[in-house]
Amino acid sequence: MSSGEKRFPLSLSSVVDKKTARPERRFTDGSSQTAMQNSQSARLGRVAAPVAVSSVTERPAVSDGVRRAMVQRVAEQGVRDELVLAAMQAIPRHLFLESGMVGQAYVDASLPIGYQQTISQPYIVARMIEILRNGVMMDRVLEIGTGCGYQAAVLSLLAKDVYSIERIKALHELAKNNLRPMRIANIRLQYGDGMLGLPQVAPFDGIILAAAGLEIPSGLLEQLRIGGRLVAPVGGKKQELHLIERLNQKEWRKTVIESCHFVPLQPGMV
Ligand code: SAH
């Protein structure tokens, strides 16, 4: 991987592969949301890096330092992918939390975001994306469980198009509000049941689940491109992180990565 020569931390512009950027695509059913519908670059049809990230950070120098420490801890726990680490450095996690939680934003822990849901622990976000992308810039990625939108923002620096589904309307709205000021052009948020996936946009190079089911919904396996990768927590009280690779039309290969702990994957919408 050419990124091996780059120095950490990378600038945002070096994280996003401009050569592969292309005009944004929208859902055909008209029900989609883009995180930056009103931004100028969207009107111009360009895909832009979230250049406003540091400008929406109230005290960038302060949060940069604590975020660097968080990224360092994630690296020490074994995440090696430099572009994933750089994306974690670039996205201000504290902006996804309510004001009372901001002080804990860079602790390596999951934190409450309301509605009995959590923002995932930084380590597991990084680890899952590292496994998902396997050193390759992804084209189309689907996230199940937008929550506050943090992981979608990290993914947006490592994929050309990120689609993210959330089943709780209030969290879908929260994610929209969190992402809007960051002006990320390549995220589409969808309110719906992620267990059904997004057949109208499939196939996906990568599918990532931020909530654990007892098994991986078969519709999601079908929406994986041949050669594509799906990363998901599986289980109830005891959970494991699974990597599923689609080998061909009818075959998928499962690899168990490590134990993990996620909120449950639930059907329907609320
Ligand atoms: N991606 C988030 C993690 C959110 S927690 C982050 O960046 O931290 C997992 C989320 O999955 C919750 O918001 C929960 O409501 C959602 N979820 C659970 N089952 C779902 C389903 N079937 N479809 C879509 N979202 C689901």
Element-level helix/strand string: HEHHHHEEHEHEHEEHEEE
Helix/sheet category: alpha/beta
User: What is the count of helical runs?
Assistant: 9
Please tell me the overall pLDDT: 83
Bound molecules: S-adenosyl-L-homocysteine
Trace the largest sheet across and list its strands: 1-6-5-4-7-8-9-10
How far is it from the N-terminal to the C-terminal residue, by CA? 42 Å
- Using DSSP, what is the number of strands? 10
Percent of sequence in beta strands: 15-25%
Task: Sum up the overall morphology in one term.
Answer: globular
Catalytic activity: [protein]-L-isoaspartate + S-adenosyl-L-methionine = [protein]-L-isoaspartate alpha-methyl ester + S-adenosyl-L-homocysteine
Subcellular location: Cytoplasm
Function: Catalyzes the methyl esterification of L-isoaspartyl residues in peptides and proteins that result from spontaneous decomposition of normal L-aspartyl and L-asparaginyl residues. It plays a role in the repair and/or degradation of damaged proteins.
Keywords: Cytoplasm, Methyltransferase, S-adenosyl-L-methionine, Transferase
